[in-house]
Automatic annotation (TrEMBL), chain A:
This is Extracellular solute-binding protein. Belongs to the bacterial solute-binding protein 1 family. It is found in: Cell envelope. Keywords: Signal, Transport. It comes from the Bacteria. It comes from Actinomadura graeca. The lineage of its organism: Bacteria, Bacillati, Actinomycetota, Actinomycetes, Streptosporangiales.
UniProtKB/TrEMBL annotation, chain B:
It holds the Pfam family BPD_transp_1. Residues 94-284 form the ABC transmembrane type-1 domain. It comes from the Bacteria. It is a multi-pass membrane protein. Belongs to the binding-protein-dependent transport system permease family. InterPro entries: MetI-like (IPR000515), MetI-like_sf (IPR035906). This is Carbohydrate ABC transporter permease. The keyword Heme does not apply. The chain crosses the membrane at residues 28-49, 94-117, 129-150, 156-178, 205-226, 266-289. SUPFAM superfamilies: MetI-like. It is found in: Cell membrane.
Length: 495, 298
C-alpha cells in the first residue's frame, strides 16, 4: 500500500487537491442531473428521469408485450401509478389484479395503486379528483364524455404513444367516439351495442308475429320505430287477451338504473336521435335533431326541442301512456319472462348464451334496434384516459396499452362479457359466433353515433329529468322547450 | 254512598263501565293504529332481512308481480352470506367501518364534552361569538366543503387513512351544542359548592359536570355512531385504499359484469350492517330520551 502511495505523493502537481475533488464531484453531479433531465424530457413525461431499462423480449423491445405502445421506454425511477375505476364482479377484479401484477413484475419500479368505487359514484369521484387537482394517473371514463375531457384539457392525447396499426385495428365508430378533432383522448376499450331481444313464447301467447329474422347483410332494412311501436301495441292487446295482466310488452329499461329518465345516453336518447340525420344540411331540422346542441356546443334551443326531437319523445311517451312498459324501475323483466321484448346491451345477451346460470327458460330471438330517419346506435362505453396532470404519462399509457394487448383483450372480454372495441379478436371469443351477436356486430358497422359536445354531462342530466317528466305525462313540446332553455344556461360556462 | 242509594249506584256504575269499555276500545284502536304504523316502518327492514336469504336471481324474478314469494324466500339460502365473507371481503370492510365509527364516537365525546362545558359553564371573552361560529359549521353541507376538505386531508397526509375518514367529523357543531345545553341544564348550586370547596375547572368538570350529563353522552354516542356508521360520501372520496374502505362504500359496488347490482349480497350486507345499530339503539334508548330532554332539544 505504501509503495503505491509514495510515487503519487512525490508528484505533487498531479495529486488532486481537496478543491479539485469537490469541483469534479460538482461537475459530475451537474452533468448527471443534466443528462437525467434530458432523458426525462425525451420521455415526454415529466418527473424525475432515470436510465432506460434494458431492451426486453416484448414487441418493440419493451420488457413486456405493450401491445400498440410506441412511446418512450418506461423509466426505472420509483413511481406509483394510480388507477381509478368502477368496481365490478370478482372475476373482472381478479383479471385487473393479475394484469397489474404482471406489469409490476416486468417493471418492478412501477407500483400500481388501484382504487375501486361503486359504478354509480365513479363520475362523481372523477369530478372531485379533477377539481381538487389531485387525480389518479388513469381514470375510467366514458366515450360520450370525450368532448368534455377535451374541452377541459383533462385527457392526454394518446395518438403519439400508439402505433397507427393499433389505432387502425379499433372499430371506427369507437375511435370516432374516443376522439376530439382527431386527437384520441380515451383508450378504445369496449363497445356498447344495443339490440332488441324478444320472447318467442310470449309472442306466441299473444298471437303476434315476431320480428322478421335478419341476416347480417340486412341489418339496415330492419324495422322502423313505427313498426316497433305497432308490434308493442299488438303485443299488449294479445297479452291482455291471454288473461295474464302481469305481463308487459316491453321491459323497463335495463340500460342504466332503470326507469324513465335514468339513461338518456344508452336508451332514451335513441328515440330523439333516430329522428335526426347528421348528413342533412346543418340548418335542417333533421341535423338539429341529431346534434341536440349547436355546432359550438353552446346552445340547445332549436336543437333539443326541434320538430324531430318532439316527435321522438312523443314516440317515447307512447310507451308509458299506452301501458307498453312500466313507469318505474323493474329489474330484469325480460329475463324473468315478464316482458315480451327488451332493449338490451349485447353484453347482457352474451350471458343468455354464454352463462349456464343465466340461460333463459324460454325460446327467444334478437334483432336490431328500430330505425327512424337514421339507424342510430350508441357510442357510449367505458373507456380509460390518462390525466393531463399525471407526472407519469408515458408509463400510464404503457400500462393501458399493455391491458389492450391481444392476450389481455381476449382475457378481459371473456370475463367481462362486453363487446371488444376491435373486430380482429372477435374470433377468439366463442360467444360472438352466436347468431344474435353476429347480427349486433354487423349492425354496429352501420350505426350512426351520437354527436360529441363539451356540455354533454350538463345536457344529459337536464335531458334525463325532462324525459322522466315526459314519461309520466308532461307535455312533450313544452317540456323540451323549457329544458332547451335551461340547457342554454348550463352551457354558458363553455362560451 | 253507593250502598245507601243502590239504584243510583247502579246508575253511576253503568256509565263507569261504559267509560271503561270506551277506554278499552280506544286503547285497542290506538294499539292497532300504532301496530300498523310500526309495521309500516319496520316493513322495509323486514323485507331486507328476508331478501338477504334469497339469491339475486330470485330477488329480481320474484319482485314483480308481487306475490308472497316477493317477500318470503321460497328457497332460503345462506349463499349470499357465505359469498360476503369469501369473494367480497365483507369481514375486512365491516371491521374498517367499526374502527372508523368507534374512533369517531370516542373523539367526538372528548371534543364535544370539553367544548360544551366551556361554552355552557365557563365565562370568557368572545364565548358567544365563538359558539355562534361553531354553529355555522352545522349549516354547510359536506358536499359543499368536499373539495377544500380533500385538499386539507391531502396536505395533512390523511388520505387513505382511518383518521382521514373520522377526524373531519370529530368536531361536530351539533354534538357541541347538545353538550352545551346539557351542561347548562345542571343546577348552578353544585358548581358553586365545588368552587367553594376549592375544586379547579378540570376537577369540577370531571366530578360535577360530567356525571350530570351521562344521558346526553349516551344520546351523543348513539347519534354519532349512526352518523359515522351510515357515512358514505366522505369515505368514498377520502379513502383510496380498497383494503381500508368501509363496508358502506364497498357494498354499493357489489355488481355483476353488466354492472347490475348483486341484490342478494347487498341485502345480506345491509342486514349485517344493521345489527350493531339495533343493539346500540336497544341498549341506549332509555338514555336517549332523557339526554335529549335534559338538553332542551326534545
Amino acid at each position: 500500500m505504501n509503495d503505491t502511495h509514495l510515487p503519487s505523493e512525490g508528484l505533487g502537481s498531479t495529486r488532486p487537491s481537496r478543491r479539485t475533488v469537490l469541483r469534479a464531484l460538482a461537475y459530475t453531479g451537474a452533468g448527471a442531473a443534466f443528462g437525467t433531465s434530458l432523458i426525462g424530457c425525451s420521455a415526454g413525461s415529466g418527473g424525475t428521469g432515470a436510465a432506460d431499462v434494458a431492451k426486453g423480449p416484448g414487441p418493440g423491445g419493451y420488457a413486456l408485450d405493450l401491445g400498440g405502445y410506441q412511446g418512450p421506454v418506461p423509466r426505472t425511477s420509483q413511481m406509483t401509478l394510480r388507477v381509478l375505476r368502477a368496481d365490478t364482479s370478482p372475476p373482472v377484479n381478479d383479471w385487473y389484479a393479475k394484469a397489474f401484477a404482471a406489469f409490476h413484475a416486468a417493471f418492478p419500479n412501477i407500483k400500481i395503486a388501484e382504487e375501486r368505487v361503486p359504478f354509480g359514484s365513479l363520475q362523481q369521484k372523477v369530478q372531485v379528483y379533477i377539481q381538487s387537482g389531485d387525480a389518479p394517473d388513469i381514470m375510467m371514463g366514458r366515450t360520450d364524455l370525450t368532448a368534455y375531457y377535451g374541452a377541459g384539457k383533462l385527457a392526454v392525447p394518446l395518438g403519439p404513444y400508439l402505433t397507427a396499426d393499433f389505432v387502425r385495428k379499433q372499430r371506427a365508430s369507437v375511435v370516432d367516439g374516443a376522439s376530439v378533432n382527431g386527437d384520441l383522448l380515451v383508450m378504445p376499450w369496449e363497445d356498447g351495442i344495443p339490440m332488441v331481444v324478444f320472447n318467442l313464447d310470449l309472442f306466441a301467447k299473444a298471437k303476434v308475429d315476431p320480428p322478421a329474422e335478419l341476416t347480417p347483410r340486412q341489418v339496415t332494412s330492419g324495422w322502423t320505430v313505427d313498426d316497433f311501436l305497432a308490434t308493442l301495441g299488438r303485443l299488449k292487446e294479445g297479452l291482455a287477451r291471454s288473461g295474464d295482466q302481469s305481463l308487459f310488452a316491453l321491459e323497463a329499461s335495463t340500460l342504466g338504473n332503470g326507469g324513465p329518465g335514468s339513461n338518456y345516453g344508452g336508451f332514451e336518447g335513441h328515440f330523439i336521435r333516430m329522428m335526426g340525420d347528421p348528413q342533412a344540411a346543418k340548418t335542417s331540422d333533421e341535423y338539429r335533431t341529431w346534434a341536440a346542441v349547436d355546432e359550438a356546443g353552446r346552445k340547445a334551443s332549436g336543437y333539443l326541442d326541434s320538430n324531430g326531437a318532439i316527435q321522438g319523445m312523443r314516440n317515447y311517451q307512447k310507451l308509458f301512456q299506452d301501458g307498453l312498459t312500466p313507469k318505474g324501475a323493474v329489474p330484469k323483466q325480460f329475463a324473468g319472462g315478464q316482458a315480451a321484448m327488451g332493449w338490451e346491451a349485447i353484453a347482457l345477451i352474451n350471458r343468455y348464451t354464454g352463462s349456464p346460470a343465466d340461460k333463459l327458460k324460454f325460446e327467444w330471438g334478437a334483432t336490431v334496434v328500430p330505425r327512424g330517419t337514421t339507424f342510430f346506435g350508441c357510442n357510449q362505453a367505458e373507456a380509460p384516459f390518462v390525466w393531463t396532470g399525471s407526472k407519469n404519462q408515458a408509463e400510464a399509457v404503457a400500462l393501458l396499452a399493455f391491458l389492450c394487448n391481444d392476450k389481455n383483450r381476449v382475457g378481459y372480454h371473456t370475463v367481462r362479457g362486453s363487446v371488444p372495441a376491435r373486430d380482429d379478436i372477435i374470433p377468439s371469443l366463442p360467444v360472438y359466433a352466436g347468431k344474435a351477436q353476429q347480427l349486433g356486430l354487423a349492425a354496429a358497422k352501420h350505426f350512426v353515433g351520437a354527436p360529441k359536445t363539451a356540455g354533454w354531462s350538463d345536457y344529459s342530466t337536464a335531458a334525463n329529468s325532462a324525459i322522466r317528466n315526459i314519461a309520466l305525462g308532461a307535455d312533450v313540446a313544452t317540456t323540451l322547450h323549457e329544458t332547451a332553455t335551461k340547457v342554454d344556461g348550463l352551457l354558458k360556462k363553455y362560451r | 254512598m253507593l250502598v245507601k242509594h243502590e239504584t243510583g249506584a247502579i246508575r253511576t256504575a253503568v256509565p263507569a263501565a261504559r267509560a271503561r269499555r270506551r277506554r278499552r276500545t280506544a286503547r285497542s284502536a290506538q294499539s292497532v293504529v300504532l301496530s300498523v304504523v310500526a309495521f309500516l316502518f319496520a316493513f322495509p327492514i323486514l323485507w331486507m332481512f328476508t331478501s338477504a336469504f334469497k339469491g339475486t336471481k330470485a330477488v329480481v324474478e320474484d319482485a314483480f308481480p308481487l306475490t308472497w314469494k316477493s317477500f318470503v324466500p321460497a328457497h332460503p339460502t345462506m349463499a349470499n352470506l357465505a359469498r360476503l365473507f369469501t369473494d367480497l371481503h365483507f369481514g375486512r370492510d365491516f371491521v374498517n367501518t367499526l374502527i372508523v365509527s368507534v374512533a369517531q364516537v370516542a373523539l367526538t365525546l372528548v371534543v364535544a364534552t370539553l367544548a360544551g362545558y366551556a361554552f355552557g359553564r365557563l365565562r370568557f371573552r368572545g364565548r358567544d361569538v365563538l359558539f355562534a361560529a361553531t354553529l355555522l359549521g352545522a349549516f354547510v353541507p359536506v358536499e359543499a366543503m368536499v373539495i377544500p376538505m380533500y385538499g386539507v386531508a391531502k396536505h395533512l397526509g390523511l388520505l387513505s387513512t382511518y383518521p382521514g375518514i373520522f377526524l373531519p367529523f370529530a368536531f361536530s357543531p351539533f354534538a357541541i351544542y347538545l353538550m352545551r345545553q346539557s351542561f347548562r341544564s345542571l343546577p348552578d348550586e353544585t358548581f358553586e359548592a365545588a368552587k367553594l370547596d376549592g375544586a379547579g375547572i378540570l376537577r369540577t368538570f370531571w366530578h360535577v359536570g360530567l356525571p350530570g350529563v351521562i344521558p346526553a353522552l349516551a344520546s351523543l354516542v348513539l347519534i354519532q355512531f349512526i352518523n359515522s356508521w351510515s357515512n358514505f360520501f366522505w369515505p368514498l372520496i377520502a379513502m383510496q385504499d380498497p383494503a381500508k374502505q368501509v363496508a358502506q362504500v364497498t357494498m354499493a359496488g357489489y355488481a355483476d359484469n353488466a354492472n347490475t347490482p348483486l341484490y342478494g349480497e347487498i341485502f345480506a350486507a345491509s342486514t349485517l350492517l344493521t345489527v350493531p345499530l339495533v343493539f346500540l339503539a336497544l341498549g341506549l334508548q332509555r338514555y336517549y330520551v332523557a339526554g335529549m330532554a335534559s338538553s332542551g332539544l326534545k
